């Protein structure tokens, strides 16, 4: 099927976004071109048009109950109670109202009716008699009960004292605390002190799933109003939070993902960036490509707030900056309640006998350990850094494999949808029964993702209750919360997941963590691959063993001698840091230089190749040998755009203002070229 360039652009966008409005398409193409392309695509049966009526989002309102003016004085209330002595249900409502309002003036209507165990009819009678009035109030954050005190141990007290001392002279402090050291308790104490001063707290987490557990913890520990803000909430819910904060400078606590940084905070006193090393704090998908960790430090400088970065495995740049005076460094080396570090064992997959299961992904040792763990009524977490059922489909007769038509990647098989999907653009096809190339029926899936792991586990452990946490199972609004709650309550015996299961979740009954394919973590062309592999393996290992139980970790690998695995087994962050620092100094990588990545994209491969060479020459006029490339990325075509990348390494002493001026002059020169101006240039400072 042949498409015009305009039609191809619309199809590519719909492959990614599933549906788009005409207004959204107008950002890409002129109005006349859009209508012509849409008509053509409709006639070809490629797209469908649907109309939808949408109401404007309004903030959520809550009905509050208060006494009418006739019952503001004690004598009037006493007289009212006497009159209601013959109407016990109405009497009960008024008594509950007096009890619940305390020193306040109003009570949430829904809560009052529930506490009074009253019928709507009895309540309406009091409204009709003029006893109560109803007013609508903008919905606040989550209702929180009275906070409870949790005592800090001597190591946490020392760390807290050091952080406070650091904040006297520094805007930023980095808390480097091992897994299960109780960093959240320290955060909680600082939050309490900040809101006692009448200031706001912003608590950033890298993963939406973490907000579920965190909110429940802070409900118990702090007993203050909480706001939660992230993309899984509806527009109405986010608008409610935005409007509530817009005119407020009270002591609110806001928990959220990186976008929470842009909420209208008028009096922020403390910003906590938990798991500060996580790459998900960086916005990759669209401009601006900001890092929420770095942006929070900038925001603090502008507002007079303090920033606390926290991690068991801090980013190398963060530790380096702290040791060179850009922020304070506080160490917390002891696990809370003297919990032992998990026992980590490497399983050599070149020697291990595979379990007797077709397409098994498990060593016999891992299966036996899972059996023993379940027999002790403990839970298991299995980590596989790939979602879907299998990475690719292969014809064993001719070697054909299913590839994306828009990107240079294999399609991943998702059994639940019975489709082959592209994880980059969303293109999908039905699972073919015969090879499109040779018509053979010898089609087989190769490799394994979380969905396949779950299927195999159900065969091996038919009586165990399975759960899966990946992008496919957590698309719905409350999916994270449902899975986490089920695991916490013991309704799931084995939880299989991608990186979501590695990020700071705290479960009390996990006896075993299994890593199914460690080798894939460092086999990537990225100077941060070694560091990230160490961070992921250390973090997921930390999920094992809580509350006086020593956990066990089994890591399956074909290279048990690999340096990163030995460092994980020894829990030796310092050795990892020194090892990587030496390499980065030798080959000029951050923190010794600042990196900027330029990505060139266009549907014409020849044009983008020549344009990238031209842009590279422009940069080399000013930066000489500091320019690397252009080169093809690992995936050279995404969403029908061919890609080229250029990296610029700048000395840390080089003026940011001067580098910005030079770069924009080079881009302006590209824009002046009649052909190269068609190329999209994406700029990513400090790429992750």
What's the SSE blueprint?
Elements lengths: L4 H13 L4 H4 L5 H13 L17 E7 L6 H10 L4 H14 L4 E3 H8 L3 H9 L3 E7 L15 H14 L4 E6 L5 H14 L3 E5 L3 H14 L4 E4 L5 H12 L6 E4 L11 E7 L17 H12 L2 E6 L4 H8 L4 E5 L10 E6 L15 H12 L3 E5 L8 E4 L16 E3 L4 E3 L6 E3 L12 E4 L3 H11 L5 E4 L9 H10 L5 E4 L12 E6 L13 H13 L10 E6 L5 H8 L2 H15 L5 E10 L2 H19 L3 E5 L5 E2 L2 E11 L4 H16 L8 E6 L3
Parallel strand pairs: 4-9, 4-10, 5-7, 5-8, 6-7, 8-9, 11-21, 12-19, 12-20, 18-19, 20-21
Antiparallel strand pairs: 1-2, 1-3, 13-17, 14-15, 15-16, 22-25, 22-26, 23-25, 24-25
Helix pairs in contact: 5-6, 8-9, 17-18, 20-21
How far is the N terminus from the C terminus? Answer: 37 Å
Number of DSSP helices? 21
User: For the CA atoms, what is the radius of gyration?
Assistant: 29 Å
> Structural class of the helix and strand makeup?
alpha/beta
- Count the beta strands: 26
Uncertain stretches of 5 or more adjacent residues:
140-148, 355-359
CATH architecture of the largest domain: 3-Layer(aba) Sandwich
Strand order of the largest sheet: 6-7-5-8-9-4-10
Portion of residues in helices?
A: 25-40%
CATH class of the largest domain: Alpha Beta
According to CATH, the fold-level topology of the largest domain is Rossmann fold
Average pLDDT level: 83
- Report the major sheet: 7 strands, parallel
By CATH, the superfamily of the largest domain comes out as P-loop containing nucleotide triphosphate hydrolases
Number of domains: 6
